[in-house]
Amino acid sequence: MAQQLALTDDDLAPVERGADKIQVFAPDLAFRTFSIVNVIFFGLPGEGSDWVLIDTGLPTSAGAIRACAENRFGLGTRPRAIIMTHAHFDHAGSVEQLSQEWDVPVYAHPLEEPYLRGQASYPPADPMVGGGAMALLSPLFPRSPVDVSSRLQMLPIDHGVPGMPGWRWLHTPGHSPGHISLFRDSDRTLIAGDAVVTTAQESVYAVMTQKPEIHGPPRYLTPNWIEAEQSVQLLAGLEPELIVTGHGLPVRGAGMRARLHELAENFRAVAVPQGGTYDLNPANPGKSDNDAYR
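Structure tokens predicted for MBL fold metallo-hydrolase:
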């Protein structure tokens, strides 16, 4: 059973609540939570500002994402790009609709390509990882791929992030083969996706209360715990000052870093559902042929 790495309210990043339930936690970063998942908006607010959308929430999220964008960036706005941390149903639910309506490119790691071209489904969920009702319900979550073939582009080999100067992408697999996180060295801000999360995503109660804790990736949809551990170790080594994740509230500071290092150093005991399906037999759909994409 996974252990808790609890944070305190002092570890929470200050958040300013704006229109349409958007929450601003840095001058150029805001997010909105859609039921169980966060969607992130990068860009300074204001009419005509350049901005980027990171992940697209659930299939029902498109209209609310558009409304948030128009409140923050102006009527009729559209992003320069959509960046996908990965293509699970709760992160890619609205990517087909929004990319088509906005006519903008969708960027992802090459190992996520099959799931964004309608070619492959993710491995089945493991409901026996413990932790609560979300895990037990996980076999009901959609696994079918989405298809944004006409707009899909691979992330740059130089690890730059389109539309996000000063940021770089990091390959952080385990939760999915082509999962990425985004990092800005100038202020050590980390957009972690689901490589780490700040709530016990397996539990409905934890999802509702948003009690801040440091966790590994959501256990029921993580098929490779060896890679997941390596990804957490990579992120801890960045010594981030601020982290926003795919699930949970943004966190910051020394207490957060201490818990993140504790997760990295004790990952198997803290995060891995020992004896679970993918602990015993990790799913590994393949490796990139290009080392630059690792």
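The longest helix spans residues 225-237.
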